[in-house]
User: Fold this.
Amino acid sequence: MHLWLIPAFPLAGFLLLGLAGRRMSQRLINTVAVGSVLLSFLWVLRTLSALGTLEQPHLESYFTWIQSGALRAGFDLMVDRLTAVMMLVVTGVGLLIHIYSIGYMAHEGGYYRFFAFLNLFMFFMLTLVMAANFLLMFVGWEGVGLCSYLLIGFYFHRKSATTAGNKAFIVNRIGDVGFTLAILLVFIHFQSLDFQTVFASLATNPAGVTAAALTAIGLLLLVGATGKSAQIPLYVWLPDAMEGPTPVSALIHAATMVTAGVYMVARCAPIYLQAPLALEAVAWVGLATAFFSATIGLAQNDIKKVFAYSTVSQLGYMFLGLGAGAFSAGIFHLVTHAFFKALLFLGAGSVIHALGGEQDLRNMGGLRKHIPVTFFTILCAAVAIAGVPPFSGFHSKDAILIAAYHHSPLMFWIGVITAGLTAFYVFRAVFLAFFGSYRGQAHPHESPKVMTLPLAALALLSLGGGYFDVPRWLHPLFPAAEEAHEPWLVYVSVAAGLIGILAAYGLYVARPGLAGQIADRLGALYRLVYNKYFVDEIYDRAVVRPVVDGSQTVLWRGVDVGLIDGAVNGIGSWARGTGAVLRLVQSGNIRSYAAWVVWGSLVALLGFVAAGGLR
Amino acid sequence: MHSVPLSWYLILSAVLFGLGVAGFLLRRNIITVFMCIELMLNAVNLSFVAFSYQLKQIDGHLYAFFVMVVAAAEAAVGLAIILTVFKNRATLQIDEVDSMKG
Assistant:
């Protein structure tokens, strides 16, 4: 079936662009960059249509990558129903975003560099989702992290961008330690890294591996997922990652890479199903993140920051779904979220493009008359994320909330409140940007066709994506999610979304100014939320400062300068000191040398006499 | 026939050697110092030959010849050095030639 072609096309695109892109015309770069992803997408379609219903996973082994004792890690690709969903999302949304980037990046420097990195990202992301063993998945996992770092720091002449890139990379390393340890534990307990072998041995012989070991694996995998998918406590890098170009935010930091953690947990569902404690941790981490970051999103003024916190929050939803045992609902939300959140970011990009780089909501307003296409597409995404029926977000969010209700009613209610907050902050952004009167200086202009067409395609997907019945498709892989026996659950969550929208309308359209009064009334609480609960500052004090100070005082001044340099310099100065004494002997005076010789001879002579001369 | 006893030769040799050492250490003129070296070499030669005669072995004579050859070579090289030093420094005072001071 030549599965390898799917990641190979973008890799070829990367090599071509990376090696020769500098000398290519913009048109040729577009052809290579978009063409490689298009080929990849078409090959995915062809593969999936040839494989049919995928009752059994389709595995292709190409070569053994690492062989050592019992350890065998091969370059093996696998397609099952979960992979099929992920491949379609990654290549489909990726293709649209590549097309959009042609328009968005048209006037930026480093054009070929941007598309080279974007193609490389597609390669690693496809490797991640198609890998048939933990180690190859880890390769993709690290590769997308690298591309994320490169693309966040794309405007490398801006200090804030390079800092944000470093932050993303370092925070992800913390999570990756957990993932690496989990892989090691899997190998220790199962003597294999292949998904199929591990999961098969889990199903037939669970006695071999203790529940404690499985819980440890599950929790360590969760640590990895919190890094990559921006969950508490490692979510802090994602809002800063908005320093990158907007298509990157849409592709990597909303639609695909950040969902890798969700995919990984779903992939390891057989492990989690036998480690209820770890699964419970997944649910609570997700719920806490969803609620916490939704509240931060309420008070942000940068349009991309609002959507960034929204992404963190929606990822939390996905983890909530996974943790509640509804793996297919989590993946379902991953898919619909990829549509509407990519659209929100691309729409935001279109707004920023229209305003010549302006990102602050306070300097927008009234834009619906100036850029109607962008407005309507963003509105589609907004109703989708707010959970308005019958659009895509409604279906997936309700699947998660119903599963949460059956897991624990408390989770359901917090989830419902979060849904209301989500609707509120998204529509707050929409109302602030598109309604009222224009508050900025630039002259807004609608984006070119190459940008609005992907917006329109994503708008259709956002509206109708809920009718891809992902849970039914994934049914053979995961235990059945609970059905909606109680209709009132649905009414409650929809009502929460509508209340959120109405509240936003009331505060920002009907009575502008009221929001400011409320913020003043709340005082300290508002400032707390506005400043993102000071989490960055707390991390800075609790982790970054101690590490930096410790490095400077103990490691640098103490160990490096004191101990290591001290030892080296000490030996040197000791030799110098000894030499200073010994050089006095070297007087240059021949007669003194002669005297030394004479005295030496006399001593030797006396020695001989003492030893043997007195016989 | 009364031959001169070995000890006399050795005492003479030691006296000559001691004079050489004393001259080497105390005199300042390079040429005098140089001659003191020759004196020491020949004092040693004397004891070599005396022992050789006493023990009826040829080895001591052999060594005496070696020492003479070395002394001749040393005289050639040494005098050349002394000439050069004098040319460059206009002095034969050994204490003033101390550029190799550490």
About this structure: Residues 218 and 477 of chain A are 18 Å apart (CA to CA). The longest strand of chain A covers residues 58-68.
